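Appendix B, Record 12. Input sequence as logged:
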Amino acid sequence: MNSKRVVITGLGALSALGNDVKTNWQNAKEGKSGAGAITYFNTEKFKTRFACEIQGFDPSLKLDRNEIKRSDLYTQYGLYVAAEAMEDAGLDVSQLASPFDAGVIWGTSQGGMGTFEREMKGFYENDSSPRFNPFFIPKYLVNMASGVISMKFGLMGINYTPVTACASSNSAIMDAFNYIKWGKAKVIITGGSDAPITEGSMGGFNALKALSTRNDNPELASRPFDADREGFVMGEGAAALILEEYDHAKKRGAKIYAEVVGAAMTADAYHLTATHPEGSGARQCMKLALEEAGLAIQEVDYLNAHATSTPTGDLSEIKAISSLLDGKYDKLHISATKSMTGHLLGAAGAIEAILSVKAINEGIVPPTINTENLDPAIPKGIQIVTKEALEKMVKVALSNTFGFGGHNATVVFKEFV
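Logged structural output:
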């Protein structure tokens, strides 16, 4: 089977940094934090009372009334960014040779968590006549964003949802890359969405002691690689990428942001929630992705780290990177953009993919904010971009995501030439 080239022709983004790609990228370059007090529910009883909420979201700008009524927030986020990406790509599905040539592979970690919580709470609180909304099941299912995106745009090809916790959208991007590379699709909308700023989700992650409790100063709470890091900051949102077979994109005159050249997944097979302390699974994941791309890690200009600001997770990833680099630290620059967006769970890989692609396009590495004192266990010479963005030529970018259950997923992006 001849391998097809896979390019990126459209982008869409929604996070605490902004409601479109342009605003997200601008605020990421400027090192702005999206963290603030939670407004969605009363946090008085919670250990963590802040998160990275989206501001001013108006689904009616891109969704119709029925789409809003029948969809959980995570699906609305997905539809919103898919619409931005489709418009950005200038893609008219009616002009495809067949609607079966185009599909959707969409990641999420929790699906309709908000819907599930509201429906169950209403059920137990209504003693007289407990009832469920007829859209309860369709709204909370984890595959529903993928299905609804396909319905909105009439895409009748491959359609499903990989769920690998916080690696979900990188898993989705990898699968989309493979299906196009194998000639089984011409176009795939991929990425992910999650809306996890809910009572159950915040309470559950608090119980795991995974979240930062720096309630006195939320904007400084996410501090990847810092000696004083003590947990991640919850984020929400979505991001979409239009992956397209190169000849198809060229024929229709599409603009091309970058090329996807490698991807891989591995498992830690170690712990329910913790990464392997030596980063063995992460190391092999990066190694396999780079081998497919025909590259060595010393050829990578920028690595967007999974680094969530947890004591063990950040260090295990650095160990994996350092092991691959084998002391040759001079070219690679690393940053953790979760310091600004928060951790979008299943959508993390998608928003970080977009920031990686923009780094290639503009020659700017976004910063890791709030990192004042690097963990002394980090090897000397590792180049972590802190405080301010770095201008440098970025031809190759690598993006890592790791999920509970030991899931690792890495994607490699390259300047299109």
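The mean pLDDT is 96.
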